[in-house]
Every structure is written in structure tokens, then in C-alpha cells.
């Protein structure tokens, strides 16, 4: 009965067939549809999309490599910079130390020189003073000698009396004192 | 028995079957020569027959043919748009992003690990089959839609195309003779070779057979379960069961979305795996 049932239902338009019924027309349509889809999409989509995906993959890879190279270069530059900064600092310190040394030396030298100069000047002054002293002494000696001679002359000339002598001597002393 | 008698008998059976009949479930799942827009009516599709060397070839349009064409149109329009956006710039935007995720998934997660070297040659086929099955699966989840991939004729045809691609791929890499020689594993005793050869040849055919049955069964089962759950309302004739039925049907529907994705993935994945096995036979 069931078989007859399904058989009759199948006769009534084919729409009540079982789920495992194979429809040759549908197979042909599936093949046609799929092949058309494959060909159209291959031309329209897969080729441009896949090639641009590859292109992008390559582009990103290249960019990353480039970035890596650039980073290495930058690191090297920084290293170089650091080295040269250190070197420059050392140099600067050296120069400063040198300058300081030089200044110190100069200072010492100048101090010494000025000391020497001062000593020389003092010595000169002393010598001058000595000379002047000597001169003055000599002058005085001459004058004293002259005065003594003069006095002796006068004493001898006017050797009259004791009173007069005493008067003369006092006069001479007064004269001397005036001088 | 003339035609009238048969017609009467059929009508009687139809009206008799309507009481306890569950054929409406199958009617939803099966192919038919009309587009069902209940309650707005049905659109009957043209019947095309032609004679090829005396054999009647039935090329009538059916629901599933129309929905395959719909998938074709959707995919072609979508990919023309996406392809254009790739020509303009390397940076994808909008819908291209979504499509690119799927393309890269098929390329990097399916084709590359299973086929390895030379997978580029098979990518157009794998991508087409993936997107075609995916679109057909999703079209079945749209109201008034119909799942072309729940038809054994469609899945079998897709599996046969897969079979052809697998065999041609293997033969192109290893040569026709080398391919059949490579089917027999290394280190098999000489007396076993004829048996192994038969077994391996059978194995070649069971693979696409499994592909066809898997896709067909998965896509059919979900719809039948949804319809059965909703049918419970009418069988039990009570409104109490409506929330339960609808909740379960909704759950199965969400599951169906997952299944639609998974089945497209599995079909592509297994096709790719079989291609890889045919191309690199020593592994």
C-alpha cells in the first residue's frame, strides 16, 4: 500500500518524491551553474584579488625588512653619536684641564716675575738710598773738613786771648748749628 | 486504468493524507517546479524538455536551480564589487574586509596546510566551491528561500566535480600511470597489491560519496528539525507548546547558521585534503 501510495504521488508531478531521488536535469543545471560561476569568478575575482593579496603580502614583507634595516642604521647612528659625544666630552675635559694647567703655570710665572721685579726694584731703591747716603755722608765729610779747616784757620788767625777763643768757638758752634 | 482514474486516486490519496500527513515537511525541503510564496501563492517555473538523440532530457527549472542561480548572481555581483575595490587600492574597505577574511581563511587555513606547494593552482576551485556552498546554505535560511545544497543531486554533482579535480590534480602532478601506481602504499607484499589496488580505487569513490552525503544530510536535517518543532504546535493542537516550539526552532535556526558555515568549510577542507593526498602521494 505504501509503495502504491508513493508511486501514485510520484505520478502527480514528481514533487512528492523521496529526498534521495536524483534528478538528472538538476545535475546538468548544477554543473552548468558551477562551471559558469567558477569561470566568471576566476576572471572577475580570484585573479585580481589573489594577485593583489600577494602583492600586499610582498609589500608588507618588504616594508618590514626596510624598517628593520632602517632601525639597524638608526641604532648604529645613535651608537656613533654616543661615541662621538663621549669623545668630544673627553676632548673638552682635556682642553679645560690643559687650559687650567696653562693658567696655573702662567699665574705662577707671573707671580714669580713680579716678585723678582719687586725685589729688583727694592734692590735698586736700596742701592740708590745707599748711594745717596754715601753722597750725603761724603758731602758732610767734605763740609765738616772745610769747616774744621776754616775754624782752624780762624783760630790760628785770631789766637789772641782765651776769652776771644772761647767767643770764637761759641760763634763757630752757633754757625754750625745754623747750618 | 485510464488517466482519469489515476488522477482521482491521487486526489483521494492527497485529501486522505492531509489529516495525519507530514509530507508538507518534505515538500519544504524537497525540490519542486514552483517558487513557494505562501500565502501569496506560487510561481510555477517553465518546463524545458528537449530531445537529444532520442533521449528525452528534462531541463525543467526547479526551485533549487533558481536558488543556485540566485547564489550565482549574488556572488558575481559581490565579487565584481570586491574585485574592483582591489584594483583601486591595496587597502581593503567595507565588504571587501569581510570577503578578504574568508578568502584568506580558505587560502591560509585550508589550502596551504593541506596541499602545500602548488596550492595556488587549486585556489580558484576551492574558493568558488566554498563561497557557492556557503551562499546556497545561507539562502536556505532566508524566508521563502530554499536550500539547493539539501538536494542530493546538487551535492553529488559538487562532489563529482571535486572528484574530477582531485583525480586531474593527482594525474597532472604524478602522471596518469604514476598516479595509479602511487595509490598503493609502500611496503605492501606483492600478493596483496591487487587487493590493495581495488580497495584504494574504491576509496577514491567513497571520498566524494561521503562529501555528497555529508553536505546533503546536514543541510536537510536542520530544516526538517525546525519544521518538525513548529509542526508540534499543529499536531498537539495547543497554544501552550508555542513558546517551547518557537524557542527550540530559533535555537536550531541559530545552529543552522553555524552548520551552514561549518559545512561549507568542511566540504572545502576535505576537498582540499583529498587534493593534497592525490598530489603528494608519498605522504
Describe the structure.
The complex is a heterodimer of chains A (179) and B (283). Chain A is mainly alpha-helical. Chain A has one domain (23-178). Chain A has helices at residues 2-11, 24-157, 162-178. Residues 1-16 of chain A have low confidence and may be disordered. Chain B is mostly helical and 283 residues long. Chain B has one domain. A two-stranded antiparallel ribbon of chain B has the order 1-2. Chain B has a two-stranded antiparallel sheet with strand order 3-4. At the A-B interface, helix 1 and helix 2 of A face helix 1, helix 2, helix 3, helix 4 and helix 5 of B.
What is the gist of this entry?
The complex is a heterodimer of chains A (179) and B (283). Chain A is mostly helical. Chain A has helices at 2-11, 24-157, 162-178.
Helical content class of chain B: over 70%
What is the beta-strand fraction of chain B?
A: under 5%
Oligomer: heterodimer
Largest interface (CB < 8 Å): A-B, 42 and 58 residues
C-alpha end-to-end distance of chain A? 186 Å
Structural class of chain A: mainly alpha
Tell me the major beta sheet of chain A.
Answer: none
User: What is the count of distinct domains of chain A?
Assistant: 1
* Individual helix count of chain B: 9
Write the layout of secondary structure elements.
The complex is a heterodimer of chains A (179) and B (283).
Chain A: H1 2-11, H2 24-157, H3 162-178
Chain B: H1 3-17, H2 23-29, E1 34-36, E2 42-44, E3 49-52, E4 55-58, H3 63-88, H4 95-115, H5 123-139, H6 152-174, H7 176-182, H8 193-236, H9 241-279
Antiparallel strand pairs in B: 1-2, 3-4
Helix pairs in contact in B: 2-8, 3-5, 4-5, 4-9, 5-9, 6-7, 6-8, 6-9, 8-9
Amino acid at each position: 500500500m505504501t509503495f502504491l501510495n508513493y508511486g501514485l504521488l510520484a505520478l502527480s508531478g514528481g514533487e512528492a518524491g523521496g529526498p534521495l531521488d536524483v534528478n538528472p536535469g538538476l545535475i546538468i543545471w548544477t554543473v552548468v551553474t558551477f562551471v559558469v560561476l567558477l569561470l566568471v569568478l576566476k576572471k572577475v575575482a580570484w585573479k585580481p584579488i589573489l594577485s593583489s593579496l600577494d602583492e600586499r603580502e610582498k609589500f608588507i614583507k618588504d616594508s618590514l625588512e626596510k624598517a628593520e634595516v632602517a632601525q639597524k642604521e638608526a641604532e648604529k647612528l645613535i651608537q656613533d653619536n654616543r661615541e662621538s659625544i663621549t669623545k668630544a666630552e673627553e676632548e673638552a675635559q682635556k682642553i679645560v684641564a690643559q687650559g687650567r694647567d696653562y693658567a696655573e703655570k702662567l699665574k705662577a710665572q707671573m707671580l714669580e716675575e713680579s716678585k723678582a721685579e719687586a725685589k729688583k726694584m727694592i734692590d735698586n731703591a736700596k742701592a740708590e738710598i745707599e748711594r745717596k747716603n754715601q753722597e750725603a755722608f761724603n758731602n758732610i765729610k767734605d763740609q765738616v773738613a772745610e769747616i774744621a779747616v776754616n775754624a782752624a784757620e780762624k783760630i790760628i788767625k785770631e789766637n789772641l786771648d782765651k776769652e776771644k777763643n772761647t767767643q770764637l768757638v761759641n760763634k763757630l758752634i752757633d754757625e754750625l748749628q745754623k747750618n | 486504468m485510464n488517466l482519469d482514474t489515476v488522477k482521482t486516486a491521487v486526489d483521494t490519496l492527497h485529501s486522505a493524507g492531509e489529516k495525519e500527513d507530514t509530507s508538507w515537511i518534505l515538500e519544504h525541503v524537497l525540490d519542486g517546479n514552483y517558487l513557494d510564496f505562501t500565502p501569496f501563492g506560487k510561481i510555477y517555473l517553465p518546463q524545458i524538455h528537449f530531445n537529444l538523440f532520442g533521449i528525452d532530457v528534462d531541463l525543467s527549472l526547479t526551485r533549487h536551480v533558481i536558488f543556485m542561480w540566485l547564489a550565482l548572481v549574488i556572488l558575481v555581483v559581490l565579487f565584481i564589487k570586491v574585485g574592483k575595490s582591489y584594483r583601486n587600492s591595496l587597502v581593503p574597505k567595507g565588504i571587501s574586509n569581510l570577503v578578504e577574511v574568508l578568502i584568506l581563511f580558505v587560502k591560509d587555513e585550508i589550502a596551504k596546510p593541506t596541499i602545500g606547494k602548488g596550492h595556488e593552482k587549486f585556489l580558484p576551485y576551492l574558493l568558488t566551491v566554498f563561497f557557492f556552498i556557503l551562499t546556497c546554505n545561507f539562502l536556505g535560511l532566508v524566508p521563502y528561500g530554499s536550500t539547493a545544497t539539501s538536494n542530493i543531486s546538487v551535492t553529488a554533482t559538487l562532489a563529482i566535480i571535486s572528484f574530477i579535480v582531485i583525480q586531474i590534480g593527482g594525474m597532472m602532478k604524478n602522471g596518469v600511470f604514476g598516479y595509479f601506481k602511487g595509490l598503493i602504499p609502500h611496503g605492501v607484499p606483492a600478493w596483496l597489491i591487487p587487493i590493495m589496488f581495488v580497495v584504494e580505487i574504491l576509496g577514491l569513490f567513497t571520498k566524494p560519496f561521503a562529501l555528497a552525503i555529508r553536505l546533503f544530510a546536514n543541510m536537510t536535517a536542520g530544516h526538517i528539525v525546525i519544521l518538525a518543532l513548529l509542526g508540534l504546535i499543529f499536531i498537539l493542537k495547543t497554544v501552550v507548546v508555542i513558546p517551547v516550539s518557537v524557542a527550540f526552532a530559533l535555537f536550531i535556526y541559530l545552529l543552522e547558521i553555524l552548520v551552514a558555515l561549518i559545512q561549507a568549510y568542511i566540504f572545502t577542507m576535505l576537498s582540499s585534503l583529498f587534493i593534497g593526498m592525490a598530489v603528494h602521494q608519498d605522504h
